[in-house]
């Protein structure tokens, strides 16, 4: 699937929480697996793998029952949480574009015996997916419950398409922790600083959220004929919040 289709899906996707419990056909499941295997990581040197589970294989405190769950296992080195968000958001958009439902699940875990099979790599997060039993798309951007663009940036009207793609990204508990700053050619993405209590709950999820936002930002940059160059070390305090990534926007052929 090309970037344009994933980009277009940003503006209509939504979390699907009701599923037809019949398993997807082998053909469709293989299509999903092939796409997942082709998804590109944000941090290429990190090792990761996927497993595919069904409802009996997972523990979920919230009652979201789906016929399939895609679980990401990863090395837990620097930036692995952002990498997880970036990878699985490609799959979330693909599923939505394909007319399938999906929902990020931060509260669910694979059962113990399933976890043990992925030695060396730690379970990070999963996506529920399957045939939706509710509408799979929003019909207008107005249906997204999101902060206004002014609340996530001080860049003003300089890069409206890029900011809109970030603004509409999904996040754990819809917390939308991203703050976008810098300049149109050197964008910085930070996350809101958390107090002690929220930090305990959301420290990991927030970093996954930023990876999701970076993927949306990248799709918008590519749509405009650019490509991103990421720098996770170049701390920049101008946006407030905690620095997560600098995204230099380069012409595609550089
Ligand atoms: C990292 C992450 C974890 C999430 N965990 C859950 C979850 O455990 N249960 C759930 O129902 N939704 C979960 N969600 C979905 C969010 O609640 C949802 O994306 C957000 O409210 C925005 O709604 P939308 O996806 O329909 O646009 C999660 C989303 C993200 C990004």
Task: Find the CATH topology of the largest domain.
Answer: NADH Oxidase
Strand content: 15-25%
Hetero groups in this structure are:
flavin mononucleotide
As laid out across the biggest beta sheet, the strand order is 1-3-6-4
Q: Which architecture of the largest domain per CATH?
A: 3-Layer(aba) Sandwich
Q: Write down the overall mean pLDDT.
A: 92
Order of helices and strands: HHEEEHEEHEHEEHEE
Helix residue percentage? 25-40%
Shape: globular
CATH class of the largest domain: Alpha Beta
Number of helices: 6
Q: Runs with pLDDT <50, length 5+?
A: none
Radius of gyration: 18 Å
Q: Which class of secondary structure composition applies to the elements?
A: alpha+beta
Give the tally of structural domains: 2
**Going by CATH, what is the homologous superfamily of the largest domain?**
NADH Oxidase
Largest sheet: 4 strands, antiparallel
- N-to-C span: 24 Å
Total strand segments: 10
